[in-house]
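Today's session is about reading a structure prediction critically. Students often jump straight to the picture, but the first step is always the sequence itself: look for stretches that repeat, for charged clusters, for runs of hydrophobic residues. Only then move on to the predicted structure, which in these notes is written as discrete structure tokens rather than atom positions. Here is the chain we will use throughout the hour.
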Amino acid sequence: MARDPDPGNEAMMLFRSGCAIAALICATPALAQTPSQAELAELVRAQAAEIAALRTRLDRLEGARVAASQPAPAPAPVTPPVVMAQTPSQTGGNVTSPFAPQLVPPGPAERDVAQARQANAAGVTTEWGAGLPVFHSADGIYTFKPRGRILTDVSSTFGSDYAARNITTTGMRALRLGLEGGVGTHFFYQFESDFSENEVDIVTAFIGWRNRIAPGIDYDVRAGHLFNDRGFEGSTGSDSTPFMERTVVSTAIIPQRGFYGVGIMPRLFWKTGHASLTVTGDRIDGNQSGNDSRTVLARAHWNPIKTANSVLHLGAWGFDEGLAAGATTLTRNTVIGGRFNGALRVSSGALTGGTGTTGYGLELGGYVGPVWLMGEAGQRHARLDAGRPDFVSKAWSLSGGWFVTGDLPPYNPRLGSFGQPRVLRPIFEGGPGAIELTARYENLDYSDLLTGGQGWAATLGANWYLNSFTRFQFNVVHWNTDNRAGAFVGPDDGQTVMTRIAVTF
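Below is the predicted structure for this chain, in token form.
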């Protein structure tokens, strides 16, 4: 290939051309001695035209040489497409994913090792999940997602023999704001605060580490302010429960410290179940003037049947709690017909002198297609001082639901609990959303104490999921209580109607 002339050679050519013209004039006697004005003018015009053409070419070559010496401009950045993990229903394979395809993709703090590695390797910058995006750094190392939930309730009770129980109230079941994220494949974190009831309450707050032991066997370890892994509905978040309030098994067979405690929780996951062990002190309270109570809690669940549209769930859990010297009051007043009616409770009566508690429970249920069923039962033994016998609390429940729109129940086989559903036909895309009809019976018995009451409730409900993070709930509860102490003694029954608007992101 011929090379372009060097700009320096072009300049030399221009100089030589001028010299040649001058020499021609000098070497032609007639032209040198007696040139006419017209001839001289024509000669000058020809020389000027040649010089102008050579200068133009010289400028063009000089510009090309300067451009070649500069670094090439960087190509325009190209944003890669968002890469989401395929579900078994998308790939046509067997159900091997730890998360069911009817669940929304898990956030950074709930992914397994393979999902975290895939998200990092994808190099995505934004991944839209439920309500809010998951952000990834350009190098794929850092992951971040805002979190929140808004649960707004209205409750009305009527039919009670006590006028003080027949009230209508409103409340925020949850008003949370938080974040979660990860660094690399293994490290993750989560933090949430709740602002309901005009108070700021730290709820979930932990850091964690996850890894893979062998194909199909993972683990993670969390440390911080931890939510209990206890029972089916007791392990389900308030934004994912199929009813507006958890069962009495979850709310009564519980450590004295409640649903949260500061400590550590290692968890082991395999293809058909999981197991966890939790060791905690008290929940966050800002009181460091004495010892914390100590709680050890364990749970395991197993799915002996797990197909594309059916699951059998078996679970067991238990805890043991040693109470600190300042936490000896064991009085219980447990919700039976709605959270926002403070007069509607099953009461144990005043109980002091506790030294510790031990509780345990069983879970049995599952789903086939759009129909699910779950039974739970548990007992709690409260140890008392001065040689008094234990106070035994007993509770059980039977719950079920049917998605009339054909959606699968939002069962999470990795954790053995309910999660956020992936709605097949959201109303924002022209579909009907997901419509679920529910029913439950629950029974609570504190009558082992002379001052202890008992009660039961039957609930009919409907849930309308507009999409994966927005839903309306409606519950009608027929309740019955028989308290032996407090302001509402003796048999009483009535009805409570409740509704909720919920947004989770």
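Discussion point for the tutorial: Helices lie at 7-27, 29-33, 37-69, 88-91, 113-122, 248-252.
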